[in-house]
Every structure is written in C-alpha cells, then in structure tokens.
C-alpha cells in the first residue's frame, strides 16, 4: 500500500516553503525528495498545497462517556481530522470522570472502536476530580493514561497538589493543571474587566488563575515534577511562568486560539458563545499571551475544544456552561489573523501545533521527515471562506467565530498512512 503526494509545499527548518514529493508506504513516510516517480500506488496531486505533519492538540473534550449529546469520540475525532489534527489528548472530566483503571480500560476500548485520529486519554488527578484523594497513577498509566489532570476544576489544596506532584515526579509522569481558585471565582461568567463593568455584573479576576499558577510552580520546584498549565489567559500568569522557567523549574504551558484572538472588549453582548473558562481577559492580557508565545514562555497552542448542546448554550448566560469548540477553526483563524498579518510566521504557527506540544510531553512525533508514521495534513493556504458552525462535524456548534472570514483550510488528513478525512467526503 503506497500513496504518493506530488507537488506539495513543505516547510524547511528555516521556514521556507519548498516543493517536494512525499511517498508514504505501509503507514510510514518512506521518502521525501524533489521528484519521485509514480509507482504502483495512488497519487495525490497537491498542486502546491502545504503538506505538514498532522497537528497535535493536547487539550480537547470528547465528552465520552456520559456527555454524548455534546460530543462523542467519533464526532470529536472527525472534527479533529477536519481541522488537520492527527493526535488529540482527551480530558477526563467526563461523566463519570476517568479516575480508575476500569474506566480507562473502557475508554480505551471506545477509542479503539470509534476514533478517527490518535487519542491520548488523560486520567484524573483526584478521585471524582473532587480534590480530596489521589487516583492510582500507576494503574492508570499501565492502561495508557497520557498524563494527569483535573481539568474543569482547579486542585484547591496545595497539600493535595504537592502529593500529586511528588508521586508524578517519582515515575516521570506529568501533572497538567486547570488553575482556578474557587474562592476567587466571584460567581462570574466573564472576566472582571470592561465588559463585566459595562454590564454591571461581577467578573472572574485574573488572580483566580495566577495565584494557583504561582503556588504550583513552587510546588513543581520542590517536587521536581513536570508541571503543565492549561489554557493560560492572563498577563500575570504569563509572568509567573516566565519567572519560573528562568528559575529552571520544569513548567510548560499552552494557550488557546480564542485567548489569542479575542479579549473582553470584543464580546458583543451577554452571549454564551463568548463564555468559556478561563474567560476572555483584557486587551493587555491578550497582548501578553502573544508576547509569551513569541518569547517561548508559552510552549504551544491547544484548542480546549469544549462542545456543548444548543439547548445548554441557549440558556441565560449565567446558567449556560463554560466552553467553546475549536478543532475545526483553529488553523484557519490563526493563519489568517496572525500569519497573514505578519505577527507569526507560518513556521512558528505550524511548530506550535506540531513539534512544540510533542516536545513538551516527550512524544516521539511532530516533525515531517523520512521514517515517521505518516500523520499528515494537507492545507489549502489560498482557500478563503466564512466559518459556518452548521457545517461542523463536531456536535458542538458553540463558537464565537461564526461568520468570520478565514483562509487556510485543511483538505486532507492522514493518520498512520490512512486517509481519515478528505474534503467533500
Ligand atoms: N474550558 C471550558 O470552558 N470548559 C471545559 C472545562 C475546562 O476546560 O476547564 C468543559 O469541559 O466544558
Ligand atoms: Zn480547564
Ligand atoms: Zn478543558
């Protein structure tokens, strides 16, 4: 079984685009050269489109088990494939949360049966994500847990977090944190900034996140564990991570496309599609996130794809759940609003979606070169269209970007040498 990609554009180490042919054989990238003659297998004429290593999203919510009305492994991973992602890491805040070996075994079975792309399942740090008792890390790891997180809630007690980190450090596991101090949420749905003020509502202050990051980097230092911060959103948080990295602490962090693209001034009205956790912060915060990516404080981009049903998102804003979808719009939005505007280079953007997340977690993937598993995505950088949530493969249509014009749409996604999604099919 072989597939030959003809006339593709590949990014070089220096960030230049060069024309190459790429031969995939038995699931492996067999050869990359200027010209490869047609053989017995299929030929795909890329016609100058960008061929990249498949994108890696280490923060998605697939909602199975228990949340199938919002998303399933099948629909979420099809959405991933449509967005050019070949690997996603799924969050364990399902119903019930993935906190025991048995639940992990069942989840792995469902992944095997229904996933369209690679899925790396996270397990919970604490039983029921309740913050009071650690899960059995070793047993969960044995069943393929990717790392440990209570995403959806912060681990409230420093003592519990320290225990988790010490245990993780012993075995070389990663602790991944949603940072949110429950005593500082303030009953808010939006950031404690201009939007909340204009609407006379209470907001979630930045310290709600940053105090927990500051606490955790010190715990990471004392325990020696690899500590990763989810969806970093405020300028103080970026500073805390920057200082920690300078001090030699093993901390990494991710930022979402929506926190890079939007701030609270962009929220048009009390609209649940602009409600997510952490909230869209101020203009200065958005600027700090972009700077943090550019100076290496922020390691990579992850979508925090968080689908909810139309019914849930039609509730009044304070009753609607937090979260927005992101898999099918991440690349075109970032390409259009950052690369085309000269803020990021194409190489930087692709690295933040491929090799950078892989490196942060020591995954042996992320670079397009001979010998790798053929996880590839083909992108039409010229195609421009309006985002239309009704066409999403995801069950979740909850996006603040509906109607936005964006360029750079994936047209084909391959995992392990198999085409898992192709435009028009
Ligand atoms: N990001 C969100 O707003 N929501 C996530 C939870 C989370 O990522 O914290 C969800 O599970 O819906
Ligand atoms: Zn979270
Ligand atoms: Zn999340």
TrEMBL record:
Q: Please name the top-level EC class of this enzyme.
A: hydrolase
Residue numbers annotated as active site: 304
- Pfam families referenced in this protein's UniProt entry, alphabetically: DHOase (PF12890)
Query: Which lineage ranks, top first, belong to the organism behind this chain?
Result: Bacteria, Bacillati, Bacillota, Bacilli, Bacillales
Q: What is this protein called?
A: Dihydroorotase
Residue ranges of every copy of the Dihydroorotase catalytic domain listed in the record:
48-237
Q: Which residues bind Zn(2+) 1?
A: 59, 61, 151, 304
Q: What is the purpose of this protein?
A: Catalyzes the reversible cyclization of carbamoyl aspartate to dihydroorotate.
Annotated positions binding substrate: 61-63, 93, 277, 308, 322-323
